[in-house]
Amino acid sequence: MDTFTALAEPTRRIILERLVANGNMSATDIYRGFAASPPAISQHLKVLREAKLVRVEKRAQQRIYYINPEPMKKLEKWIKQFSAAKEQEFQRLDKLLETLKKNKRLLLQCCRLLRNRLSPHQVRRGIDNNLSSG
Fold it and tell me: CA-to-CA distance for 25 and 39, rounded, in angstroms?
């Protein structure tokens, strides 16, 4: 199971939040915090283990769960890279918008390109051509 699939379920996110807040917790302590049955919570814990988001340690008759920080670090790195890429995209769009505001001729050309139902790539190429020539 991948990290995103495991994190998609709200109950599993709550389990992780509680582990972060409380540190290591026994399965029994985790079960107590939910209205769902222990077997249902046990299934959520299994998914988190399979995704390597938590680790489990057997102590006598208890299973102690704790956060596995490595997948979280990888997830954080991916989110930062994704955010940076999107931020660059937004900056390009902001720059284009400012250019369009300043250049009505270019705006009209974009409208014509869009009206002709060109693909986004074709529109971008048309805009880039206008920016470089004008």
Answer: 17
Integer angstrom CA distances of residue 132 from 92, 104, 112, 128: 15, 16, 18, 6
Residue 132 corresponds to which tokens in the numbers above? Answer: 């470089």
The arithmetic mean of pLDDT across residues 42-48, rounded, is: 96
Cα 91 from Cα 28, distance rounded (Å): 49
Query: What is the 3 state secondary structure string of 60-115?
Result: CCEEEEEECHHHHHHHHHHHHHHHHHHHHHHHHHHHHHHHHHHCHHHHHHHHHHHH
Tell me 57's DSSP state. Answer: E
Predicted pLDDT of residue 66? 93
Region of residue 65 (left: phi > 0; alpha: psi -120 to 50; beta: else):
beta
Do 117 and 110 contact (CB within 8 A), yes or no? no
Distance (Å, rounded) from C-alpha 129 to C-alpha 134? 8
Task: Supply 61's token pair.
Answer: 């008759």
For 129, other C-beta atoms within 10 Å of its C-beta total 11
> Which pTM was predicted?
0.65
